[in-house]
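thought: fold this chain, then report.
action: predict
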Amino acid sequence: MACLIPLSNVDADLIEQLLDRAFGPDRHARTAYRIREGTDWLEALSFAALDDEDMLVGTIQIWPVALTDPTGRPHPMLMVGPVAVLPEHQGEGYGKALMLASLEAIAQTSPAGGALPQVLIGDEDYYGRFFGFSAQHTGKWYCPGPFERGRLLARCDNPAVLPEEGMLGPWLTEAAARDLAD
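observation:
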């Protein structure tokens, strides 16, 4: 069974190698990378899976993003993913264990008012059945690049707080936005 550890305990080069094996070296061209551009994954919510021989076999990263509504107001969210498992270990439960660990960490670190909405790009049949993600509220949401509308999924304790429409992108503090502009 998987041993889960904080992703911050794993060498960055090993994480990059795993992501390349799981998604291919052209993964940086994907829309998800554009959504979280300029941000860092959240250490307290991101994990690595090790096999019985303590080899890295999977990772999950959680990112601060926002859906900016038509008035220009950003609505903070958490982007789940990538969830990456080495091809030879897919189907062994590592991805599911990583998802459950991150979603539990999100719940535990959230104020009493509930967790920030979570968003991901993935298969609704899988992520809906096991984790409650749905495309029900994302029909008028946009991404900075090509995406399949039915694969843009959200999970939220109170869907009434979700904007009906908007553009997903990085959730930057004012200081971070200034640094990027310089």
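thought: worth noting. The radius of gyration is 16 Å.
final: tokens above.
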